[in-house]
Amino acid sequence: MDVRKLEAFCRVYELQSFSKAGDVMFLSQPTISSHVANLEEELGVKLFDRLGRTILPTDAGEVLYVSAVKVFANLDQARASIEMLRNRVVGDMGVGCSTIPSLGLLPQILSGFSRKYPAVNFTVHTHDSTEIIQRVLSGEFPVGIVGQKPEEPELVAVQLADDERVLVASPKVSWLPDRGPVSLSHVASLPWIMRERGSATRRVLEKALEEAGHSIHDLPVRCRVEGTSEGLAYAAQGMGVCFTSRLVAEDMIARNVLTALDVPALAGTRQFYLIYHSGRHMFPALKAFVGFNSSE
User: Fold this and answer.
1) Which segments of the chain are extended strands (E)?
2) What is the mean pLDDT of residues 212-228?
3) To pair with 70 at 20 to 30 A between CA atoms, which of 4, 79, 275, 296?
4) Where are the domains of the chain?
């Protein structure tokens, strides 16, 4: 079985698109289609159902994908083992990152690391902290950066940075509280922009509210969003207040696009952590990346 054709199949499976798979592999769509067709002919089964514009894997496609992932993992391990013998820090590395550090922390980390180790290439996967922790725990991601310290004993957590939590709103809204300290009861009556479940930012808010005798379920949520950037964008348009990170909101606050409310009950700091599985073999690129961030 041709490895290149198997890779084309995997990209179509993951992206659910022949054209997107071609873009990722720098191949034409007809070439990707030909690779998949050759695999189907070789195996004697259909691997995908083509329902109009929708591409869905068949049962045979599901089985092949699970095995193909293991094949490529073994190939990656073989390449890394060979490079280890040559004592070179090279290769491709996936980094799982929650939304706030993906915007405000990881770009600087990767830039600094790349200057020192230019032969390492990165793929960044952005999800909420809960999902990143689970994917590092399962071994899908070799390393992650999250806004909470994981409880799982198999995971090693290295503190990277402190961040101030802040409640922001547009300075143009009519309901903006007067300058000075604002009570939690007051802000609890304002319209809110809320992050999704699984977000470490949301869990920090839930804990702060509980400690003050309030519940997140009592807040008048006007808009629910899945990411930090979306929350800030809607807050800037006057949709409501947004509980977020000063690390990512600072620029918009400095430009007076957003203003930070003084809410003592919600004030505080949080930490961001680099996490990795203690049982994972430390190939050169991963070892160098962990060491680089542990010494910062």
Assistant:
1) 48-51, 54-57, 91-97, 120-126, 143-146, 155-169, 192-195, 221-225, 241-245, 259-261, 269-277
2) 89
3) 275
4) 3-84, 89-161+271-294, 163-269
